[in-house]
Amino acid sequence: MNQQIKRMPRRCCRCHRRPRAVTRTGKMESYCHPCGAWRSRRWTKKHKHLHRLIVQKSHLKMDYGITPEEKDKMLELQGRKCAACGSPDVGYKKKSGVTKRLWHVDHNHKTKQIRGLLCHPCNFTIGNAKESVERLRACAAYLERHQ
Fold first, then answer.
1. Which end of the chain is less congested by CB atoms within 10 angstroms, N or C?
2. All domains of the chain, ordered by start, with CATH?
């Protein structure tokens, strides 16, 4: 009477067709991969503003090691102006057809040290100049010669 019963994998609680997904830690999810992705997209669509805040917060922490509160404090210490040009205007960044107004965290790409918060035009300029002081000086000299 000591028979082993073959257990079927537990099924997705949405579609009931596929086995449930397993996380990296070995925990069993409630949904299969496709249904989990569907559920995630649905939540993101319903909570766009909250999702954007969560993404921003994790981006700041992962990329620069700061929180949104620390970023706000940096902006206050700068007088709510760009660290490079001193303009209080943030500038506009167009991404995926959406125009955004945001301050950019400027950092040294070699040392990862944060230098300050920049408006979009200054961040764009420094990025396109590949952080080269010589290139920026040459561009400034060029503009002065051709005024």
1. N
2. 66-145 (3.40.1800.10)
Q: What is the pLDDT along the chain (147 residues), one digit of tens a residue?
A: 445 545 556 888 889 888 888 888 888 888 999 999 999 999 999 999 898 888 888 989 999 999 989 999 999 999 999 999 998 888 776 666 666 678 899 998 888 899 999 998 999 999 899 989 999 999 999 999 998
| Contact call for residues 135 and 125 (beta carbons, < 8 A) | no
How many other CB atoms sit within 10 Å of the CB of residue 126?
Answer: 19
C-alpha to C-alpha distance for 57 and 59, rounded to whole angstroms: 5
Gap between the Cα atoms of 130 and 58, Å rounded? 26
Is the pTM of the predicted complex or chain greater than 0.85?
no
How far is residue 132's CA from residue 127's CA, in Å, rounded to a whole number? 9
